[in-house]
Amino acid sequence: MAAGSTELAPQELRVLVAVADTGGFSAAATALGIGQSAVSHSVRGSETKVGAVLFERGRAGATPTPAGERAVALARRILRLYEVLGAEARGAGRGAVEGTLRIAAFRSAALHLLPPALERLAALHPGIRPEVRVVREIGAGAAGEVLAGRADLGIATLDAGADARPELLTGELVREAYALVHPVGHPDPRSLPLLDWDENCGSYTRAWWRAQDWIPRATVKAEDDAMVLTMVGRGLGMAILPELSLSEATEAVEITDLGPERPMRRVGYVTTAESASTLAVRALIRELRANKG
Predict the structure, then answer these.
(1) How many domains are there within the chain?
(2) 141: closest CA among 105, 110, 111, 117?
(3) Concatenated DSSP letters for 41-98?
(4) Considering Cα of 12, then 76, then 169, then 162, what sign does the dihedral take?
(5) Domain ends where: 25, 60, 95?
(6) 160-217: per-residue pLDDT in tens?
(7) Residue 129: pLDDT band by 50, 70, 90 thresholds?
(8) Among 4, 86, 129, 213, which is least packed, fewest CB within 10 Å?
(9) What CATH number corresponds to the domain at position 42?
(10) d(CA 69, CA 265)
């Protein structure tokens, strides 16, 4: 397929995103309020212009190819700039910051890092409307939401690779230690079964974990860290948790330091260069950084 030189129009970008989001040409047509033939024509035209097949067509619908995934992610990010253009121009003219601010964060960060920053942000800029989505920090995680154009800013574990992506701008907000958590008063907590959850296995813990011969294989995998903490409080085992998760610890659990070689987790914000230039994202970053003060 020969590459064309014509740029994709906003409507063509919207069609690509709709097909990816709905999983098919017919569903995308319904979502956009246009005919299916118009969707098919638009996608074929976009593929000709970019010089790559963007979707695999089949009876089950349409699935983005690797080229398509990249194109759709960029399309979302470009369309987002169209959305914020008006708010940015008005804000620059009168010193106000307004509009929707899309944030992705893993659970404990959404509970403990975002609220104070958003409270100050609302007081300073009441025209900003935050939309917070909690995502699991597995695979692409919060950073992936930013790269895919579904969030303007994410709160992510930087050690998980977010700070190694050249497209992302990052800043550390918290460096937290892991600790052993066990039922209060237990005489030998290291002998207890291990409770764990899927998000608790990043590059920042893996090497340390392998070097600890006292840690057994997890006997229970819970949905999230709050569930693990509750189960520890019920006497069902011990766990190794980061400080943000331990903010919810009750009197039923005891926290024991793991020593000077304990694993650490770096948590910070991630955004793209284009989002970082917007007034709302810059305002949120200022307030997130203020949490450290």
Answers:
(1) 3
(2) 105
(3) HHHHHHHHHHTS--EEEETTEEEE-HHHHHHHHHHHHHHHHHHHHHHHHHHHHHT---
(4) negative
(5) 95
(6) 555 567 889 999 999 999 999 999 999 999 899 999 888 876 666 778 888 888 888 8
(7) very high
(8) 213
(9) 1.10.10.10
(10) 30
